[in-house]
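Phosphoribosylformylglycinamidine synthase subunit PurQ
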Amino acid sequence: MKIGVVTFPGSLDDADARRAAAVAGAEPVALWHGDADLHGVDAVVLPGGFSYGDYLRAGAISRFAPVMETIIKKAGEGLPVLGICNGFQVLCESHLLPGALIKNHHRKFICKDQPLRIENNRTAWTSDYDANHEITIVLKNQDGSYVADEATLDRLEGEGRVVARYLADNPNGSYRDIAGITNERGNVVGLMPHPEHCVETLTGPTTDGLGFFTSVLKAVVSS
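Predicted C-alpha cells:
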C-alpha cells in the first residue's frame, strides 16, 4: 500500500509523515504541490508546516495547488486523506471539512505533549483506537484554534464527527475543545496535533500516533 505525503513550499513535517507511513508498514510516496498526478497512492497525508509561508492565512494558497485539485476530486470518491496541523487548515480552506483554524487565543506559538480523547474510531484514520481511547501526542501550532458557527458545531457533535478532543486543558482556544474532525463519509480527517511525531519511542513522548497510520492500512485493505 502507498501513502502519499504532499510537500508544499514551507512544509516542515513531510519527511516525518513519510517516516510514520513506513513505520506503519506502508510505502511512502513523496507528492509535489505542483504535480496534479497522485502516482497511484492509496491514501494521502497533508503535513504540518507553513505552506506558501501562510502569507494570506494558513492554508489559503495551498487550496489552489494543482495537487489539491486532484485530492479534492479523489476525496469525494472516497480516497482517505489526513490533514495534520497546516494540513487541517488546508482541508478547511478546500471545503473538504467545515469551519476554520485561526490564531491561538493567547496569540502565541505552542509546543507541548498534549493528551487527547479519540471520540470517533469509525473513520479511515482512527479504527485502530478504542472509542474514547486517551492518547498523548505532540501539539505545535500558532493558528490552531478551531472555530465554526453554532449550527456547524452542533451538527458535528450530533453526527459524531468530532474525531478527537483536547483533555486536561484547551491549549489554543478551539471551540468545544475540538482537536480533530471528519467529513460525513469518514475518509477525510483533520487533526491539529501531530501523530507523525509519535510513532517511535526514540523520538516521541509515546507511540500513540501510530494508530492513525495503521488504521488507514486496514481501511484500504477492507475497501
